[in-house]
Amino acid sequence: MIKIDTLTHVYPGSRKLGPRTAIDSLSLHVRDGEFVILSGPNGSGKSTLFRILCGLALPSAGRVAVAGYDLFAQPAKVRQVVGVVFQSPAVDKHLTVGENLRIHADLYGIRDFAARRDEALGWTDLGGRIDHKVDTLSGGLARQVELAKVLMTHPRVLLLDEPTTGLDPASRRMFLAALGRLQKDRGMTVLMTSHVFAEAEEADRVAIMRDGKLLAYDTPAALRELIGTEMVVIQPTDANGLAERLRAEMGLAVRVHGDEIRLEETENGDGLPLLERILQRYRPEILSISIKQPGLEDVFVHVTGKAVPEHAHPVRDLQRTGTL
Amino acid sequence: MIRVAFSLARREFVRFIRQPQRVIGAVAQPLLFWLFLGAGLGGSFRPPGMEGVTYLEYFYPGVMVMMMLFASIFSSITIIEDRDAGFLQGVLVAPVSRMAIVLGKVTGGVAIAMVQVVLFTAAAPFLGLSLSLGSLLMLLVGFVLTGMGFAALGFMLAWPMKSTSGFHAIMMVFLMPLWLLSGALFPVTGVPGWLYAVMMANPVHHALNVIRAPFYGPPAEMFASGQYLASLAVTVAWAVACLVVSMARVGRREKGAAVAAA
Ligand SMILES: Nc1ncnc2c1ncn2[C@@H]1O[C@H](COP(=O)(O)OP(=O)(O)O)[C@@H](O)[C@H]1O
Ligand SMILES: [Mg+2]
Questions:
Q1: What is the spatial distance between Cα B27 and Cα B123, in angstroms, rounded to a whole number?
Q2: CB A194 within 8 A of CB A118
Q3: A11 CB under 6 A from ligand 1?
Q4: CATH class for domain A2-221?
Q5: Which residues on adjacent β-strands are paired with residue A262?
Q6: CA A312 to CA A308: how far, in whole Å?
Q7: Residue B11 predicted with pLDDT over 60
Q8: B77 forms bridges with which residues in the sheet?
Q9: Domain assignments of chain A as residue spans, ordered by start
Q10: Sign of dihedral through CA atoms B44, B48, B51, B57?
Q11: Residue among B87, B92, B95 whose CB faces A92 most closely
């Protein structure tokens, strides 16, 4: 459904800044009816890829086909089957919900507007707010206007760029749940970018990119298998020093992420004895040590090799509501 | 395409009438300009061959052009705001012709400008100017053509801009002089030769001719005048050129830098 082949995008740069490669020979195929989440740290090129996919930018090199149409040769055809939800709002805040939907229906040549509108609103919590101006709605509801807009046109392919940015955890879950139900209901192909790693659990497949390159692309379950079923996480006084000693003196495969050390390839039940052994030998150098069930978020840390600052925060959903 | 353009134009209009201060300001400002300048310069206005014409009357079509010029340009530069607020991106990814995007903005701007200038036309009887139905129609055609040309000019200039502050600079150094040198304030007769050449090359001058003519003769007489036909042709050509450039700008996609073949 979406075929991206060796795509490269280089921002020309200016006098002050040199050219910048945002996407580097990236290939990615999304199958018909699949829900794919494209994830990666900020600056990894997600939005750039997104802008290319919705026809706003032309890449430096490579090919993209959407629903069988060449995106660069037949952009008008592609626009007809694709629905787009942008990272930043794409509604007129000074108009009401209904007026915004009306314009959108006109742009997409929808004839039975009232029926389509009501059907789309049925997926949201916007009932009774049709005549309210968008700038009087809460952030979560305003986001739902975007979703309603795009659903009205019955797209075969739905592209979303960090649609949950700025939403509180409850609204975010609501948005994702609605999206998930819809995707299954209508058999839509969905490609959604996100830097909120916990969201990736919902997807059929997850693509992880960093610095414009695709690092991994698989089902959440398969990705989780990249690391063990348990992991030991140590917060030492000196991460690099202790990591060296763990490698040299205990023969352990450890990784340093920021100020912590991780032993990722630990099988079920091996965590506790290992923890005890480490604690016995290096107690004075350790601030905290714990055993953790790896989540997708830990796969990201593993694959991208970049620690996410607040990763040890106990409440998952509260971790990354804002933009990093 | 018409439905899309109409829908986008209606949005412009709805936004305009929801801001009463904008409506009042847009009508009041040129009106005051006209009354004060007309009163102040009235005594010294004695151009040859225009004896029976008061300055208030001479300046009247000039103020109309000013209204069309500024109102239509100011409406179409809201494209900068649309891009900033995100609304534009949603329109650009929709399956609509790029021409409809330009026409929506431009006709919205023209409609807004028309409301003001048509209200202002109601002052004509007080100046002793009377318009036949045919002349009134030609006046409206003049308004629309002028508005299209300058709304499209505003669109084309504003499209690549990141903020409206840059646009205000262009306004002052470029558009204001165009209006000043259109013949709105003083007639082309009796100016130095070099200034005459500049004024004849000025599209606003031709727009002014197209708007002034209906007050001084029936349509039959206008179409018999070579000067009117020339100005009409320039005004139409100007509008078409600005629309074409605007459409080309909307159609162009930002492009990645070339990479050396691997
Ligand atoms: N308009 C631009 N001009 C130059 N560089 C840009 C531009 N937009 C993004 N970049 C750069 O391209 C890279 C990828 O950015 P982006 O696609 O926004 O990433 P993401 O959405 O994953 O955070 C970053 O290094 C960013 O600085
Ligand atoms: Mg982004």
A1: 12
A2: no
A3: yes
A4: alpha beta
A5: A233, A255
A6: 9
A7: yes
A8: none
A9: 2-221, 224-323
A10: negative
A11: B87
Question: Which residues in chain A have Cβ-Cβ distances shorter than 8 Å to B262?
Answer: 25
Best residue among A15, A23, A48 to mutate for probing ligand 1, ranked by most atoms within 8 Å of CB: A48
Residue A281 contacts B, CB cutoff 8 Å:
no
ipTM: 0.86
- A165 CA distance to ligand 2 centroid (A)? 10
Taking the CA of residue A209 as reference, the ligand 1 atom at the shortest distance is 22
**Does residue A44 line the site of ligand 1, with CB under 6 A?**
yes
Is the minimum CB–CB distance between B86 and chain A shorter than 8 Å? yes
Residue A13: predicted pLDDT: 78
CA angle, B251 as apex, B246 and B255 as ends, to 5°?
120
Query: Using one digit for the tens of pLDDT, what is the confidence trace for B52-75?
Result: 788 888 899 999 999 999 888 888
List pLDDT tens digits, range A112-151.
Answer: 999 999 988 888 888 889 999 999 998 888 888 988 899 8
For B113-170, the pLDDT digits (tens) are 998 899 889 888 888 888 889 999 999 999 999 999 999 999 999 999 988 888 888 8
CATH class of A224-323: alpha beta
Taking the C-alpha atoms of residue B62 and residue B53, their distance in angstroms, rounded to an integer, is: 14
Q: Does B249 touch chain A (CB under 8 A)?
A: no
Cβ(A83) to ligand 1 under 6 A?
Answer: no
